[in-house]
Write a structure and sequence with these properties.
This protein is an alpha+beta fold. The protein folds into 2 domains: about 40 residues, no CATH class; about 200 residues, no CATH class.
Length: about 260
């Protein structure tokens, strides 16, 4: 005789279907127990959140490097709370594949030529960044499921704007310290960018941040090489699970000595 599903014990069902696993905390190395049906864990020693099974090592040009992964919490002005993944790595210049051909891809955008932080107004990568020996690179990765109450075409925009806000809050702190920075996506400082006329001039230069893609950086390559992330793209038949925004703080030998964590 088969038990009615309503009579099943949730605790027993969980015990039979899932099991505890042991992982090493990427922060302090302590062993942490996480159930097999859970995606993230919290270290009882140092208090760090981390994603289980996430590789924290990469390989670029035959050289190993490490990246950090953390799970952070964010609450918007309405009180809605969400968790997001934050990746960070200090990457060499060779990871930043860049070329004018990647700037040309922006011409397909229906808003091409309407934002001073985007092509054709944005400079090329090398002219803007100059020489650098490493870049503190940050990736914010947010699940679109937090915005499932919105229409599919609006979820990406809401998710991207949230990630962009979190990223730029960090980047502006580093710019105050004198570092060159690059963020993600178009500048949203003004409701309408002043790109009309022959003397287009930004009215809020302190808030303008060029994106890596506007400078001609290949973000698909950067995400894969830097964080082992394959960027997802939404289409008419598929909605991406995550939205990523990527930015960087560029360091030379002189400036890296005074690099301080963003508050």
């Amino acid at each position: 005789m088969r038990l009615n599903d309503s009579l099943k014990c949730p605790g027993l069902e969980r015990a039979l279907s899932v099991f505890p696993e042991m992982f090493h905390c990427p922060g302090c190395g302590a062993e942490v127990e996480i159930w097999s049906d859970e995606k993230k864990g919290k270290c009882t020693v140092c208090g760090s959140y981390f994603i289980k099974g996430r590789h924290d090592k990469g390989l670029v040009d035959g050289r190993n490097f490490q990246f950090k992964v953390g799970i952070l919490e964010y609450a918007d002005e309405t009180g809605i709370r969400l968790y997001y993944e934050r990746y960070e790595a200090e990457l060499p210049p060779s990871v930043f594949e860049h070329d004018r051909k990647y700037k040309i891809a922006c011409e397909a955008c229906k808003r091409y030529g309407t934002n001073l932080a985007c092509p054709p107004f944005s400079p090329v990568f090398h002219d803007y960044i100059g020489e650098f020996h490493a870049a503190k690179t940050i990736c914010i990765r947010i699940p679109q499921e937090y915005f499932s109450h919105l229409a599919p075409e609006d979820r990406y925009i809401a998710c991207f704007r949230t990630g962009k806000k979190l990223l730029e809050e960090e980047l502006r702190q580093f710019r105050k310290q004198g570092f060159k920075i690059a963020g993600a996506g178009p500048c949203l400082a003004c409701e309408e960018c002043r790109t009309e006329g022959t003397e287009s001039k930004c009215h809020k230069p302190a808030k303008l941040i060029y994106s890596l893609e506007s400078l001609g950086v290949n973000l698909i390559s950067l995400a894969q090489k830097g964080f082992n992330i394959n960027l997802e793209w939404s289409s008419n038949n598929h909605l991406a699970d995550f939205v990523c925004v990527i930015g960087a703080v560029f360091l030379n030998k002189k400036s890296s000595r005074r690099l301080q964590p963003a508050p």
